[in-house]
């Protein structure tokens, strides 16, 4: 079966005063129906820009989709105008943003903000929209939904606001929900609740989830498949178990080694490993592998030739020259 | 809400008292008073002039005079204009409609120009439209009203002879003719004052819109597929108008100040030209009353700003 969403060779560039910033540079990602895909990578690796490019939510200009296809249910979204995309936004693809504190309009009630999405995409009266909004708030476990629906965002805590965001993203029952670091801004205890809620909602509505995160813990808990991004490119892609048991790309290995281990006894405990250096600036990036300057296995070829993404095991792809030698 | 307004009005009383005290002291310290004319008038014997001054209490200590003025004001007695030979309140009520008509229309014109232009410019920053609007706005608020006023008179009254340049309160004719004439003579002062206001307001609206347009919740609104117009009007404008409303209300004193100049240029018999002529004629009761009316208007507009603020922004609770 064809995947629900297939991103092929996506390049999203931003023009800046210093030149063209290649935030996303040839990314391939596909998501199947009903699956949870995690996109991981450190800040600035292009995962958010990739997600925002799908519905053209990046600022254009300065942003621009320079190349690539984004095929959703057999239809390429890249050539569509913003007006045409409005039919897909929220209705087919819902969005949950990172910052629940700033992602809700402070001057409108949360009920209005959820209901306007319903009224936009479905033929419902104001009263029906309100009823369905209250139902959604109940689903995301907001206590006293009938009363809270008329409250403003500042009257909610961070976790509650993120529940509101989830209710908003799911109101029109989209086939795909893109959650951009939905738990990063929350307390650890609340993070787990929100992830559980997302999982519940997924089981109830059967939608696919593209979860963007930099927390490997979140990945292990939720994902079926994982895409690892580095400096605007996909470096590794694998089913979640394979990725944790057999990470192939040195960057992925580094990411996994940087997770604190609680299961080891004190004798085996080692210092937490960090990946030295930082993400390269993506204006005129160097040829070759972008991770090479930080890679402990870097070879001659790494700075000369760009490694291509290739399949090394069923469903497991990575982009590194290391595999070539063996 | 009504309790809040009531309390704000009660709070306004001490500040108005303070303003009136300062105004009174400043006017008392200023040289000249309504009877200084008499001292130089050869037809009035000096002892009569002195007796008159004593009778009207002009030689009393300043605090007595202030208390006297205050109790008279409290009884609704605004004083008597020695120059116009009529009660000050009648005089002000005669002059106020012309001022409110011109300033009100100018302010409405300013809003009608500034909000659409500012909003549209902000949705397409650095576009040709934005750059033209910016340049015109810059020219607009660089040119003072006394300059543009005279320029307008020169072009539209003297050269083209389209519009009258002296504002008249007793227009002949009735009905629609009267209305048309009232509009015709107000065009130039309203344009001069309104476009001057619109210039700075446009830039303010634009920057307020730009501040909001890049916020996260605007992206959220876009992600709902609401469409550009709805996103801009419902999500961006609603938030951007909060600082704009404050600015407009706080600008009102400056608008009245600017109106004084405009009224002088176009000979509008409004409250501003009354103030100028009263100052020149040492007509202290009128000067005191007019400046006090200005002070009351400023306090009133501040109150309006606060109420609107609470209405526009639910995060501010008016308690």
UniProtKB/TrEMBL annotation, chain A:
Show the InterPro entries listed in the entry: AAA+_ATPase (IPR003593), ABC_Ni/Peptide_Import (IPR050388), ABC_transporter-like_ATP-bd (IPR003439), ABC_transporter-like_CS (IPR017871), Oligopep_ABC_C (IPR013563), P-loop_NTPase (IPR027417)
Transcription listed as a keyword: no
Q: Provide the ABC transporter domain boundaries.
A: 7-256
Specify the signal sequence span. Answer: none
Q: What biological process terms from GO does the record include?
A: peptide transport; transmembrane transport
Pfam families documented for this protein: ABC_tran (PF00005), oligo_HPY (PF08352)
Gene Ontology CC terms: plasma membrane
Give the record's membrane topology: Peripheral membrane protein
Does the keyword field hold Membrane? yes
| Gene Ontology molecular-function annotations | ATP binding; ATP hydrolysis activity
* Keyword tags: ATP-binding, Cell membrane, Membrane, Nucleotide-binding, Transport
Q: What is its main location?
A: membrane
Entry-linked Gene3D superfamilies = P-loop containing nucleotide triphosphate hydrolases
Q: Where in the cell is it found?
A: Cell inner membrane
Q: What family does this belong to? A: Belongs to the ABC transporter superfamily.
Function of the molecule: Involved in beta-(1-->2)glucan export. Transmembrane domains (TMD) form a pore in the inner membrane and the ATP-binding domain (NBD) is responsible for energy generation.
PANTHER family with a match to the protein in the record: DIPEPTIDE TRANSPORT ATP-BINDING PROTEIN DPPD, OLIGOPEPTIDE TRANSPORT ATP-BINDING PROTEIN APPD
Which protein are we looking at? Dipeptide/oligopeptide/nickel ABC transporter ATP-binding protein
Q: Which organism is it from?
A: Bradyrhizobium neotropicale
From TrEMBL, chain B:
Pfam families on file: BPD_transp_1 (PF00528), BPD_transp_1_N (PF19300)
Full protein name:
ABC transporter substrate-binding protein
Q: Which UniProt keywords apply?
A: Cell membrane, Membrane, Transmembrane, Transmembrane helix, Transport
Its subcellular locations are: Cell membrane
Gene Ontology biological process: transmembrane transport
InterPro entries cross-referenced by the UniProt entry: BPD_transp_1_N (IPR045621), MetI-like (IPR000515), MetI-like_sf (IPR035906)
**Alphabetized PANTHER family for the sequence:** INNER MEMBRANE ABC TRANSPORTER, OPPB IN A BINDING PROTEIN-DEPENDENT TRANSPORT SYSTEM
Describe its membrane topology: Multi-pass membrane protein
Primary site of residence: membrane
